[in-house]
Specification:
mainly alpha; 19 helices; about 65% helix; globular
Length: about 475
């Protein structure tokens, strides 16, 4: 950027940033519409990302992963509250996160056309990608009987962005170094939401109150998706920690501690349980006895030293309060599932439409059970696709574990171990939460899924790139081991 044109571009960008900053300050100071503050900034940021995508598509992908975790804080829809800490139905508009999904799909499409024109061959799709495409297709079919085509269509587009992310990453992740760049981007994405949570906890800026507990949600729309996101980062982080350099271990250690503290302050019981079981899976598959011992000791210490953990589970023994309403979120879920299930009678084949279960009930809340949601919103077609999706998750985890078995203790094996733990956590949380509707969570889940699939494709990717394939015995070449 030392050329006159480069200096002019930098100057223009600086002027735009100053103007947007002044505009945002004036809007905030005068109590103006949040939309007036967000839209100009979102347009400028979207233009910048689009330009980055044209110049460096891989950098665009990683930049998207970094910023996505912080974008829900600028949603223009009203904040939600409700029983058991769940969202009330809010109008789904094309907020900045939705705009990012559209930009990502378009940039990926043009990137694919460019590769096609250059005659570059893409690696084969994983079974996970195929099943995710089927599930997205079921989402589009559900629009047929949706009470609000625009809302269901927008949700289907967001799921499509997740499919595109998985497809793009399966092409980009060709070796260990590309996987490391992806993992770095994922953990950098946690700096802002975790940092904001730490700030709010220290200064007692409560973001959400439910069941008598002050809960925190970082930059996310509510505590539950934030907790799911943190769970996956903690599980995979524990798997990869031994492979980091001393400096990176210090940074990762601080970030993981922040993630654990943030997870605690979400007060999301299902995520607490899933994180613990996911970590036990990492210790088991990774054969880490020391980690297992540390976990057991930490759990016992936490139960004694942090009484709010026991208090958070204590109300599960109470079904109703004096007024007859549910006294805890688990009881509320059981009651609400009985209200949601009959909605499927409207169209049991293709469902009532994505996101419509939040609008078709008197309480206007999501089902908090992905299996039920898949059946009600996408019908039998979507339910079959959803079970195939779950099967494909396990298939990729099993394949990566078996493929890296001879490289026990390698970076690749730890990726496989971490992903296996994430899959277990994902399924457990899906029983009592809305994971498949939290597109922000799915972006990071499919990123880990693509990494797990990539470790099984080194040989195929090398052949496609015209490079010498790695040894057939599954051993990592010396240079690769030294770069770990």
């Amino acid at each position: 950027m030392s050329t006159p044109r480069g200096r002019l571009i930098i100057a223009m960008c600086a002027v735009v940033i100053v103007v947007l900053s002044v505009e945002a300050t004036v809007v905030a100071a005068t109590g103006g519409s949040k939309l007036l503050m967000i839209v100009p900034i979102a347009l400028f940021a979207g233009l910048g990302l689009a330009l980055l995508g044209v110049v460096n598509f891989e950098g665009f992908v990683y930049a998207t992963i970094v910023v996505r975790a912080s974008m829900d804080i600028v949603k223009t829809s009203p904040a939600s509250s409700g029983t058991a800490g769940v969202n009330t139905a809010a109008a789904s508009g094309l907020d900045p996160a939705g705009g990012l999904a559209v930009i990502f799909i378009l940039m990926a499409f043009f990137w694919y056309l460019t590769r096609k024109r250059e005659g570059r061959v893409a690696p084969r799709a994983s079974i996970h990608r195929i099943c995710l495409i089927l599930f997205a297709g079921a989402g589009y079919l559900s629009i047929i009987d949706s009470a609000s085509v625009s809302i269901s269509l927008l949700e289907a587009i967001r799921v499509t962005a997740v499919v595109v992310m998985l497809a793009v990453l399966e092409v980009l992740l060709v070796d260990r170094e590309s996987i490391k760049r992806l993992v770095t981007a994922i953990y950098v994405s946690a700096v802002v939401p975790v940092g904001l949570t730490m700030f709010n906890v220290v200064f007692h800026h409560t973001q959400f109150t439910s069941g008598g507990f002050d809960r925190y949600q970082g930059t996310f729309s509510q505590p539950n998706p934030f907790a799911i996101y943190l769970t996956m980062l903690i599980v995979m982080g524990a798997a990869l920690f031994p492979h980091l350099t001393i400096r990176k271990r210090a940074l990762m250690g601080l970030l993981l501690i922040g993630c654990v503290i943030s997870l605690y302050f979400t007060y999301t019981r299902s995520a607490w349980i899933a994180a613990v079981i996911g970590l036990f899976a990492v210790a088991y598959f990774g054969r880490r006895r020391l980690m297992l011992g540390i976990m057991l000791g930490s759990m016992l210490l936490a139960l004694v030293a942090v009484p709010t953990i026991a208090a958070r589970f204590a109300d599960l023994g109470q079904a109703t309060n004096a007024s007859g309403t549910a006294s805890n979120s688990l009881t509320w879920r059981f009651n609400y599932w009985g209200e949601v299930l009959p909605l499927a009678n409207k169209d049991p084949i293709t469902g009532i439409g994505l996101k419509m279960s939040s609008f078709e009930t008197s309480q206007q809340k999501e089902p908090h059970n992905d299996f039920l949601r898949a059946y009600v919103e996408t019908g039998v077609v979507g339910t079959v696709a959803y079970f195939l999706l779950l099967f494909s998750m396990g298939a990729v985890a099993r394949q990566s574990l078996r493929f890296t078995k001879k490289r026990h203790g390698s970076y690749e094996h730890s990726i496989a171990v971490g992903f296996a733990g994430c899959v277990i956590a994902f399924v457990l949380i899906s029983l009592v939460s809305n994971v498949i509707s939290e597109v922000i969570v799915l972006w990071y889940y499919v990123a880990f899924a693509a990494a797990a699939y990539a470790v099984t494709q080194y040989r195929e990717n090398a052949i496609l790139r015209g490079l010498p394939p790695p040894p057939d015995d599954g051993e990592v070449p010396v240079l690769a081991r030294l770069s770990a």
